[in-house]
Automatic annotation (TrEMBL):
Protein name: Elongation of fatty acids protein 3-like
Database matches in Pfam families: ELO
Chief subcellular location: membrane
Keyword S-adenosyl-L-methionine: no
Length: 284
């Protein structure tokens, strides 16, 4: 398995470039995000135009999507973990006098190019953001509402993952490992709920998101410290822009969290995040 996930020639020889990587141009980035937003708005308007009051029946599609995202996230996590270990093994001679492996994970050496094992899985993560964005259309079909924070959130994730590759941005290895680990659990739970199994009595998805945001914040602080006290980190300009985008995500999440708590009196409800069933109430 290690060979197929970290030593295959297509992985080792990967290079992020407009001629070798689909979706690697700025025009594609802006066009795809614009098309995503336009399609979501169009679906919402169509449902309003036809006056459909009941949710659109999607059958097993959301469950299949959640299962696919969980398996894909797990594959990216394991592949990137093996690839990061291999990259550290093969390149440590170059930077070992100035960095530890953990510092390398946080702070790429200046001059790092987007090629090789790690960036192959970063590219896979970038492409998976488009599959993840399909959840927006499930939400619109089920609830007949267009969530602009959700549109903004998915657009930010696509943009951030593009910048990671375009500028060989530091900290992306840890960010992808943390995100795919959390997404494996979150989408696995969503699949669990979608096939009719019991909903948890605690906000599983919300807790996972809090953990992910907290870990990302710690990693960003680590990059900042290493950049100023350890000779600089590659892609710090893109990191600065990504930090602003991450700040926007945190604000959106805090807004949702406060609304959830105030709206439910502190009750535990994952359905707003899941798009799934609400926990059933026991009769007294």
């Amino acid at each position: 398995m290690r060979y197929w996930l970290s030593e295959h020639p297509d992985i080792v020889g990967f290079r992020w470039s407009p001629t070798q990587s689909w979706g690697s141009t700025w025009s594609f980035l802006f066009t795809s995000i614009s098309a995503y937003i336009a399609a979501a708005v169009a679906l919402h308007l169509l449902l309003l135009l036809f006056g459909r009051r009941r949710p659109v029946t999607l059958g097993p599609v959301p469950a299949v999507h959640s299962l696919a995202m969980s398996l894909l996230s797990a594959t990216i996590f394991v592949g990137l973990l093996f690839s990061a270990a291999a990259e550290i093994r093969d390149t440590q001679w170059f930077w070992r006098r100035s960095k530890t492996p953990l510092q390398w994970l946080l702070c790429f050496p200046l001059g790092t190019r987007p090629s090789g094992r790690v960036f192959f899985w970063s590219y896979a993560f970038y492409l998976s953001r488009f599959l993840h964005a399909l959840r927006t259309f499930f939400t619109i079909s089920r609830r007949r509402t267009l969530s602009f924070p959700q549109l903004f959130h998915h657009s930010i994730l696509i943009c951030m993952s593009f910048l990671w590759l375009e500028f060989s941005q530091s900290v992306q290895v840890l960010a992808i490992l943390l995100t795919t680990l959390v997404y494996t659990m979150v989408h696995g739970y969503r699949f669990w709920v979608a096939i009719g199994l019991p909903v948890g009595r605690f906000p599983f998805v919300v807790n996972c998101q809090i953990m992910l945001l907290g870990c990302n914040l710690v990693c960003h602080v680590g990059v900042l410290l290493l950049h100023f006290y350890n000779g600089g980190c590659n892609g710090i300009g893109a990191w600065s822009f990504n930090s602003v985008l991450n700040g926007a995500i945190i604000l959106l999440f805090l807004k949702f969290y406060v609304e959830m708590k105030s709206g439910n009196g502190g009750a535990v409800v994952d359905s707003a995040v899941e798009g799934g069933r609400k926990p059933s109430k026991k009769k007294s």
